[in-house]
């Protein structure tokens, strides 16, 4: 059961908008816990890929439901484990991200993972980032932010991240993938991606990380 006395800052937004970087920084500066909700879906995606399961198959979907209901995921410091195996790096692959987006549109899977996300509400406070943190997971959040940027800006950021990790990357392919994910996320039947009621919309296309972090903290202090 959630402790509603623990404050939550919910930061939602599209893929590669920078919400993870911002949420992590804000959490550290405030001394709060941090939830990367997308990581949970990516862990499920890695598990699905490892088992050769795809949501378009009815028989596979039943297996995915069972997998999501008992997903052996652990968060230890800055590392993420699936069944005791460190998957911190593998969940950040483009393949895992694309599969996570496909899984996230399925209501039954979202339901299984909902409580796991809410369990992060502990300690002095929580900063959570995702797609529906303010609308579904933590509707009573003290501050709700919808962080966005143009598709081109987000694609360029993702392209730089991949290059810096030593991975090959095609900007045009990344842009097309982001646009496809945006379409899936905004058009899904359950918790579609959009600013929820009461959210502060922040376009960070032309803002530095420090500027965004300071803006979010200022809004929170006024909330």
From TrEMBL:
Signal peptide: none annotated. Keywords: ATP-binding, Cytoplasm, Kinase, Nucleotide-binding, Transferase. This is Cytidylate kinase. Its EC number is 2.7.4.25. Residues 9-216 form the Cytidylate kinase domain. It comes from the Bacteria. It is an enzyme of class 2 (transferase). It comes from Limnobacter litoralis. The keyword Nucleotide-binding applies. It is found in: Cytoplasm. Pfam families: Cytidylate_kin. One of its GO terms (molecular function) is kinase activity. It catalyses: dCMP + ATP = dCDP + ADP; CMP + ATP = CDP + ADP. Gene3D superfamilies: P-loop containing nucleotide triphosphate hydrolases (3.40.50.300). The keyword Cytoplasm applies. ATP binds at residues 13-21. The gene is cmk. HAMAP family: Cytidyl_kinase_type1. Belongs to the cytidylate kinase family. Type 1 subfamily. InterPro entries: Cytidylate_kin, Cytidylate_kinase_dom, P-loop_NTPase.
């Amino acid at each position: 059961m959630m402790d509603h006395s623990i404050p939550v800052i919910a930061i939602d937004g599209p893929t590669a908008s920078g919400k993870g970087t911002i949420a992590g920084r804000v959490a550290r500066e405030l001394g709060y816990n941090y939830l990367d909700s997308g990581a949970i879906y990516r862990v499920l995606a890695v598990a699905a890929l490892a088992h050769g399961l795809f949501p378009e198959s009815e028989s596979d979907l039943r297996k995915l439901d069972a997998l999501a209901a008992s997903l052996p995921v652990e968060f230890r410091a800055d590392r993420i484990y699936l069944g005791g195996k460190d998957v911190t790096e593998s969940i950040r692959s483009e393949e895992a991200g694309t599969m996570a987006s496909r899984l996230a549109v399925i209501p039954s899977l979202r339901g299984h993972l909902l409580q796991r996300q809410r369990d992060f509400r502990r300690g002095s406070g929580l900063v959570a980032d995702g797609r529906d943190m303010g609308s579904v997971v933590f509707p009573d959040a003290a501050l709700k932010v919808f962080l966005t940027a143009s598709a081109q800006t987000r694609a360029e950021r993702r392209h730089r991240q991949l290059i810096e990790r030593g991975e090959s990357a095609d900007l045009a392919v990344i842009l097309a993938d982001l646009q496809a994910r945006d379409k899936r996320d905004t058009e899904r039947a359950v918790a579609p991606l959009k600013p929820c009621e009461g959210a502060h919309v922040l376009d960070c296309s032309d803002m530095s990380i420090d500027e965004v972090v300071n803006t979010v903290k200022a809004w929170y202090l006024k909330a």
